[in-house]
UniProtKB/TrEMBL annotation:
GO function terms (MF aspect): transferase activity
EC main group: transferase
Name of this chain's protein: FAD:protein FMN transferase
Organism: Glutamicibacter halophytocola
This protein's UniProt keywords: FAD, Flavoprotein, Magnesium, Metal-binding, Transferase
Cofactor(s) the protein needs: Mg(2+)
Length: 311
């Protein structure tokens, strides 16, 4: 029987399960090491992180750590795969919207204001990022935000390192970003739900696959009397228009899954058709709780006398 542990990190709920129970403690140490490396490289809330140092000095053929180079390479892949809907240069915009500190310290929403969803078009500059090995050049005046992709990559890296170093199947979950590695004897059972009040579904996740959920409901705060959420539309640098409360996608890596969930939130009403066209298993929950799925998403299990929650 496997071993499981849960904890809090980056203001998120984290969990890890290993198939070999007695390896839980060394596995947790490996995960902690990976997360510490990722945080030191990419946090926007640590003044000593590499991302914050670059925000102060800029980057012009600047040497960076292999960890940050790997994270930026993943963020650029996400930008390409989403046609720019996942933009790694939104650090300045997030800070201007008040998201300039750890989420737990942000002001709670106290008014019924709605997020600004339109404004002047911002220049799309991420294609100008130059990454050559560990040498980085950023467009002048820009700031990195690797929050979404770095978290997903951290889950991928942590699960893979546990499986490789300890020879056990592992699942790592970081705030809805779930990665697996190793050869599990049975599929992992995953509960898909954004908040306790939302419709839920249990699905089987086969070893070597990943799942991510992007939400417009959890990371919200108040800024100048308006309700904000953390997924920005890169076209405007403002919170994406809320059509879905959450989108979940299963893919071969957590980075890929998170790319499509984030881009789906940005695409709003076009998300379902787009995810279907990509032949992705995806589950979309509307603001009213209505659940839709692509053709590859598993139908909810039926119990005698029950009604499918997807309706």
């Amino acid at each position: 029987m496997g071993g499981k542990t849960t904890w809090k990190i980056w203001g998120l709920s984290a969990a890890m399960t290993v198939e070999t129970a007695h390896l839980l403690k060394p596995a947790k140490a490996i995960v902690d090491s990976v997360l510490a490396e990722v945080e030191l490289a990419s946090s926007r809330f640590r003044p000593d992180s590499e991302v914050m140092q670059l925000a102060r000095t800029g980057a012009n053929n600047t040497s960076i750590s292999p960890t940050l180079a790997l994270l930026i390479d993943g963020a650029l892949k996400a930008a390409r795969d989403s046609d720019g809907d996942v933009d790694p240069l939104l650090g300045g915009e997030l800070a201007n919207l008040g998201y300039d500190r750890d989420f737990a310290r942000l002001p709670a929403i106290t008014a019924k204001g709605v997020s600004i969803i339109q404004g002047p078009l911002r220049p799309i500059l991420w294609p100008l990022i130059q990454l050559n090995g560990t040498k980085l050049t950023l467009p002048a005046g820009t700031a990195l935000d690797l929050g979404a992709t770095a978290k997903a990559m951290a889950a991928d890296l942590a699960a893979a390192r546990v499986a490789e170093e300890l020879d056990t199947a592992a699942l790592v979950s970081l705030g809805g970003d779930i990665a697996t590695a190793g050869n599990a004897k049975e599929p992992w059972q995953v509960l898909v739900r954004d908040t306790d009040a939302d419709p839920w579904q249990q699905v089987s996740l086969h070893s070597g696959f990943a799942m991510a959920t992007s939400s417009t409901r959890k990371r919200r705060w108040s800024h100048r009397g308006l309700a904000m959420h953390h997924i920005l539309d890169p076209a405007f640098g403002l919170p994406a228009h809320r059509v879905h409360s959450s989108i979940t996608v299963a893919e071969s890596t957590c980075l890929q899954a998170n790319t499509y969930t984030t881009a789906g939130i940005v695409r709003g009403a076009k998300a379902l058709q787009w995810l279907e066209s990509m032949n992705l298993p995806a589950r979309l929950v509307g603001l009213d709780g209505t659940v839709q799925g692509t053709s590859r998403w598993p139908a909810p299990a039926r119990k005698p006398g029950s009604v499918s929650e997807n309706g």
